[in-house]
Amino acid sequence: MLLFFFKVLVSSIIISTASLLSIKKPGLAGFIIALPIASIIALVFSYLEFEDKEKTFLFAKSILTGIPISLLFFVPFFFNKTFEMGFWFSWIIGILLIVLGFFIHKYLIQFL
C-alpha cells in the first residue's frame, strides 16, 4: 500500500509542476508533458512491482502503439481557427477521437 501512495505522490508532483509551469512558460510545460515521463515512470513501477519482463515489454509496445493514436485528441485543436470551434467543442471532439483511437489501439495490439 505504501508503494501505491509513493507512485501517486511522484506522478502528481510531475503533473502539478507541469501545470504550474504552463502559466509562466507554456512552451517548457508542453515539452515536459510531451515527454514520455508517465510511460517511463509506469514502466519502471510495473517492472519493480511485478518483475515480469515479458509483460513489461508488451506494456512498452502497447505504449509505443498508443502514442501516435493518442495524438488524435489534438486534431480538433489544430484545426480550431480553420473551423472556428470553441475550446469545449474542440475538447469534446478530441475526446471522441480518443475513444475511436482506443478501438484502433485494441485492434492493433492483437498483433504485438
Short description:
By secondary structure, the protein is mostly helical.
Molecular structure report:
The protein has 112 residues and is mostly helical. The chain is 84% helix and 0% strand. The protein is built from 7 helices and no strands. The chain has helices spanning 2-24, 26-34, 37-50, 53-70, 75-78, 80-83, 87-108. α1 runs antiparallel to α2.
Present the secondary structure layout.
Elements: H1 2-24, H2 26-34, H3 37-50, H4 53-70, H5 75-78, H6 80-83, H7 87-108
Helix pairs in contact: 1-2, 3-4, 4-7
Write a concise keyword list for the protein shown above.
mainly alpha; 7 helices
According to DSSP, the number of beta strands is 0
Identify the overall geometry.
flat
Strand content: under 5%
The Cα radius of gyration reads 17 Å
The major pleated sheet works out as: none
- Separation, N- and C-terminal Cα atoms: 32 Å
- Which structural class best describes the helix and strand composition? mainly alpha
Q: Mean pLDDT, as a whole number?
A: 89
Helix content: over 70%
What is the chain-wise order of helices and strands?
Answer: HHHHHHH
Helix count from the secondary structure assignment: 7
Query: pLDDT under 50 segments (min length 5)?
Result: none
